[in-house]
Amino acid sequence: MTLTLRTITSEEHLAFIRTLPSASHMQLPSWGEVKAEWRTESIGWVDEDSGQIVGVALVLYRQLPKLRRYLAYLPEGPVIDWFDPDLERWLQPMLAHLRAQGAFSVKMGPPVVIRRWGAATVKEAIAAKEAKRLRDIEPDWSEPRAFELADRLRRAGWLQGEDGGAGFGDVQPRYVFQVPLADRSLDDIQRGFNQQWRRNIKKAEKSGVEVVQGGFEDLAAFHRLYLVTAERDHFTPRPLSYFQRMWTALNAEDPNRMRLYLACHEGEALAATTMLTVGEHVWYSYGASANHKREVKPSNAVQWRMMRDAYALGAGRYDLRGISDTLDESDHLFGLIQFKLGTGGEAAEYLGEWDFPLNRVLHKALDLYLKRR
Description:
Blueprint: E1 3-7, H1 10-17, H2 31-34, E2 39-47, E3 53-63, E4 70-74, H3 88-100, E5 103-108, E6 113-118, H4 119-128, E7 141-142, H5 144-155, E8 159-160, E9 175-180, H6 186-191, H7 195-207, E10 210-214, H8 219-233, H9 240-253, E11 258-265, E12 268-278, E13 281-289, H10 298-312, E14 317-322, H11 334-341, E15 346-350, E16 354-357, H12 360-372
Parallel strand pairs: 4-5, 13-14
Antiparallel strand pairs: 1-2, 2-3, 3-4, 5-16, 6-7, 6-15, 8-16, 9-14, 9-15, 10-11, 11-12, 12-13
Helix pairs in contact: 7-10
């Protein structure tokens, strides 16, 4: 198969994504509309013999101030055959194309899982207090080809990114937590929850918490809770317009792409979440909750509703997104993995983000700037 690379239309891009079991929502053509502060482009790899598109990517370009030079970012992409023995026939044309577009540096995030740890394995490690990080534990599953892929990228000149700091606030998590849904019944899934999760779900039901699916007009209620959460957890919130743009762009592409859920008690929304679906993969995207009435457990109720709906959609995985790999109970990030462990799912490590400096001087200058921020 001889490959050529060219700019493709959004329609061509989406048509290829629809042939796959799944792909990251950040590699959808509509995601370019969500990231309005970036210039975007869809590119495709074409088999010269058949004329068929065999790989795609959404590229986000961020311009350097006062210069017509760009950071080219492919979040959780490109969508290609990552285990092709001749990987260079995919990556070299991509680098040449991005250089011609004015890129001084390329950042990509291969959607390749290296290792998985089941909830039981992680809990045992926490109880034993012998490991400080997930990477210190023997995994329950690993992908040998992923380690070979990492070596090939290094030999080709790619630099492995650190766990944080992709730049411009768009770094993607290397570690995530997922609940497998395929080949399981809903009863099996709930039995996988720990005792606390099952108790909290029952508590929410007995307290009269009702989880409803919202529409565009309910994003304002979600955002009010999101601002409360941002203040409580000390992060910078996105504006309401960002979520409105996300809803409009994603659901114009597929009416079932983005959903909004609200957990209500006595007529008041206490927790709200967004859910994204691409093929057989469902993501819990954003979550928010009030500071009061936490005893009625709205967050557990809304998660269980989303898992049930994901299951009904035929999803193979329910993705709770990022976690830190810390197992240190004194670490402020430990609560995140502790909450998600209760679902009985599994922690997964991706290959992480990789950089290719097309202009080493500008790449180094950007790297120093980001480290100082």
